[in-house]
Amino acid sequence: MAEARAGGCCPPMDLFRSEAMQLVQLIIPIESAHQTVSNLGDLGLIQFKDLNADKSPFQRTYAAQIKKFGEMARKLRFFREQMVKEGITPLTKPGAQSEIDVDDLEVKLGELEAELVEMNANNEKLQRSYNELVEYKLVLNKAGEFFSSALRNATALQKELESQQTGEESLDTPLLMDREILNDPSKQVKLGFITGLVPKEKSMPFERIIFRATRGNVYIKLAAVEEPVDDPVSGEKVEKNVFVVFYSGEKAKTKILKICEAFGANRYPFTEDFGKQIQMISEVRVVLLSDVSGRISEMKAAIDAGLFHRSHLLQTIGDQFVQWNTLVRNEKSIYHTLNMLSLDVTKKCLVAEGWSPVFGSKQIQDALQRAAFDSNSQVGTIFQVLHTTELPPTYFCTNKFTSAFQDIVDAYGVAKYQEANPGVYTIITFPFLFAIMFGDWGHGICLLLAALVFIIREKKLSGQKLGDITEMTFGGRYVILMMALFSIYTGVIYNEFFSVPFELFAPSAYACRDLSCRDATTAGLIKVRPTYPFGVDPVWHGSRSELPFLNSLKMKLSILIGVTQMNLGIILSYFNATYFKNSLNIWFQFIPQLIFLNSLFGYLSLLIIVKWSTGSQADLYHVMIYMFLSPTDELGENQLFPKQKTVQLVLLLLALVSVPWMLLPKPFLLKMQHKARHQGESYTPLQSTEESLQLETNHDSHGHEEFEFSEVFVHQMIHTIEFVLGAVSNTASYLRLWALSLAHSELSSVFYEKVLLLAWGYNNILILLIGFIVFVFVTVGVLLVMETLSAFLHALRLHWVEFQNKFYEGDGYKFYPFSFGSVNYEDE
To answer: What start-end ranges are recorded for coiled-coil regions in this protein (predicted)?
Structure first.
């Protein structure tokens, strides 16, 4: 046990009560403050209090250092984003780790960021120029084809007109003015045009807006580009169309340019002289294509070289990224913690206060001595324990198995300091209650296999980033394991394997009286063998009396289990009262609650056991109802044991007496204690009740306060009414165990009979295959997912409401020690 204590978080104490905590004060010399906090961060056993809560973050001593490390963290986040884009994964375990100087790292990170930013900017410019050149080539090709086609058409038209001039005039012959215009170039209208590319999805609105803005005085020609191109602005693949817009006048040109800018259309120059057009088209075909292709290949080579250099730089960063990131996070958390400490008047020491578990005192002192030695401080850190009335934080030492169950309890409320912890019992009772509602050993095996997959691969999965649902399931893998094991156990008791019964331990104890008993009730069966040794006899399944028998069995089991668990909760309230030396809660809460619950529902549980033991036909509904309505009437055939009527009268009287017993004495006794405490000169803290301790705390902080008897009485009355009504409603609430178990069994039976057996009856392999697939999907989707979640939530409610409200206050707060491990985990 001494070795366990030296190991850290395993002192000789179980989970029943939280660890004993102490408020410690550290007086740390300035020169060793950083090393001291660093050692304590490695140890993770102190939760520091903020002694500078009245100061803003900018007024604190180490604000400049936090700003510096915040800037370094920003650069590291930038590196991470660039590595993610490049598809580079940082090395989780670097090979050789050397000591890194923080100042050198700051300079290095700045240089790397500047180099990477410059490389990104250059690469972006090159990529943009490359994309523009590709688009320009497309414009030259598509627009060149259009102008070549137009030129051929114009030449053919000109020849046709010339041939018509020599012949006889007709209706198609141009007028005199048209002839003058054709023959005199000075009189021809000069049209301008704009070429470029527009996104394909915007082509129709683009064409319509230009048409409307110029009132139709334009001619637009669009040509689709076969493959998506990289947009020079966004860098994304976009489907585009090449456009040529013919216009007349500068006003129309201005409007078209503005529309192009609004639609994100990239414009490229094209000569307006037909002679030059023909020359340019030929150059595109012969010279320009080779020139552009050469420029594109040169630019592509430059881009590839830049990307290779950038990838090499990011790979170098990735090799050291985890080490740098851990260092920066740790340093930032150290200075954040130092900002919580207060400077003494001489400004030579820092004063720290915080909570630590008592078992960690030796380890903390060793860490302080190492820090003083490593920092060459002439004065060591002073460690002293402070006495306080402040409520300490709650700290349970858990492992990977118990932590999930403790989280279930903490989700309701964190236990008050050293309050009895329901997490100890939840490890068994939670999966057991779940299994009562989920009793099928076939489904339990499926859950077991799923849990084992997570458990076997837990080392691999714990280092990966999982989705929300997968991460939640992985965190509760041991809860699922226990639920699966208990489901197999209860499934064997119910004798259900996907709703099919098996003679697992022995043949059935019953046999048919005659050949026609297959469809008869159990009256047609006779007992021919010893009683089935374990669980439900398989002969009950499929018989007419299956539902009445299983309903009676599961309903009564639910009441027995519920009363047992509620009694456990009341008994735990006794241990709480004894531990906190609260005698009033023992005499006026624990005893009357125990008497009230067992006078009614404990007695009902006893009747169930007696009826099972004796095989009596007594009607328990009748017994319990008339115990209240007519307690003096004779029981007749419903009597289960001698003197039962007398016992019922005594229990009813005890139940009635226990109500004022809970309600009246406690407020008056608290008032008497308050008067005795504040009477004369004898001011002695009387720690006999939680209420008196609360009043003492109020007196220390606010002076003498009057005892509000009415408030205390109303508070006690509310608790009494809540318990009396809750005893009835909570017992009825446990019947959900019976209801959900019945629903699960019937659903499983319906899926088996109406899907699998129905498909089997067709004697067709295809129908059988389809039926089996449907059966697997509904079993997984409904029974293994929805029913599992439903049973989980109902078991959760039974623990939080019916069990924990008997003793558990849950108004504490968790112990969050300063630890580098938790800092890195939260940042992830």
So the answer is: 95-136
